[in-house]
What we know:
9-stranded mixed beta sheet, alpha/beta, 20 helices
Amino acid sequence: MSTVWGKAASRGLGRRPLLxxxxxxRLCSTSTDGRGGGSPWAEHYGTKSRYRAVEGGGEDGPSxxxxxxxxxxxxxxxxxxxxxxxxxxxxxxxxxxxxxxVKERADTGLGLVRDLAAWRMWxxxxxxxxxxxxxxxxxxxxxxxxxxGFPRLLRLRSRETERLQFFxxxxxxxxxxxxxxxxxxxxxxxxxxxxxxxxxxxxxxxxDTCQKFIRQVENNDTALYQVDKFKQGPEMGRVVGKMAKKxxxxxxxxxxxxxxxxxxxCTYEFILxxxxxxxxxxxxxKDAEVLEYLGDLKQYWKRSYGYKINGLSSHKLFQNIFQxxxxxxxxxxxxxxxxxPAVLRFGHAETLLPVLTLMGYFQDERxxxxxxxxxxxxxxxxxxxxxxxxxxxxxxxxxxHEAQSLGEKYKLQLFLNERPLPFPQxxxxxxxxxxxxxxxxxxxxxxxxxxxCEFASREELDSAQRDDL
Length: 469
């Protein structure tokens, strides 16, 4: 575990009018409010989706933070994915390969090919997933909205801000998201020291150290069998064929990796620059749906219900959330000052998806398979809606007056991306804390789960694959 403490403080002249017209049409078709409506495929960008396409509240909409009647805010616990980022060093070379294929092998007699060849490859491996300035703005704006919704917990006086607790993954995009969030709080409540923040990869990058997950999934060549099978299936074959035709090349010249990288170019041009790139013209809606499903298959089998260990690997983070809420209740019952009115944790899609899986959310009746794309068109598991960039899971604990019993005294609300999320055990938007805790008691029990990530034997690996497949 890494721990750090700190404080925040050209074409020819004859073609130019057409090029200008094309650019204007592109820019005018882009949504000016940033909600993603300008890109025809924005709803299919998966975990690279813009947050404002899915958020529940925001400055232009009604506040989602409606407390229960006769209740006061006591504690806020949050799990937040980093904001909008640049592509990673893993994907940039693949994107460059796609551009190189167009320039060197595609039919330059085609207008689209000329547009793509003229496009400048500006992505650089040194960007390596760093936080984009839009991501910093997303974090600051989220902090302001949360502060407005929960002033009792987040708008503390300057000398009290040390009571705010922040945990972050060591990745620079997460650290910078944390600092941007803290700056947003400072802007909402006036100048102040912000709060204490701590790098804790054991908590927020648990998948790096959970040996059972590493053995059964991460380093298992067959764990993503369904993903590999879908890549070789008829749906992806049609996407490759249509793309080859638009480029004037043989389908054999295009790999699935190149198709994915091309879709990334379409995606990043929109989420970072707000434009609908000509790269998007290589796809139609059906193609975008297929590529979204491919991404969801990956997330399902590597981070969610594909294997039990995917969700279980997050047990320490899940327990950490309840430990802080238990502490808050104990201090409140003793009439003590609440040590931590708010605890915010900043991680990744790979952090959030396992926790929601552990909690039982977004599970379809049938697993996502290479063979059931059509059947899963209306699936619950849509990673772009669950965990877009800047996604957030917020739990709010309340003390309620006129309660008839201790069990009714403390209530809990849950929000995903600023939308109320019903509790799975009851379907209610507000639940007694004891009821929620009892529902998850088997997951909160630290002794029972002390060995959940211990090294998996070959026999356990074979058994897990039989059980989950």
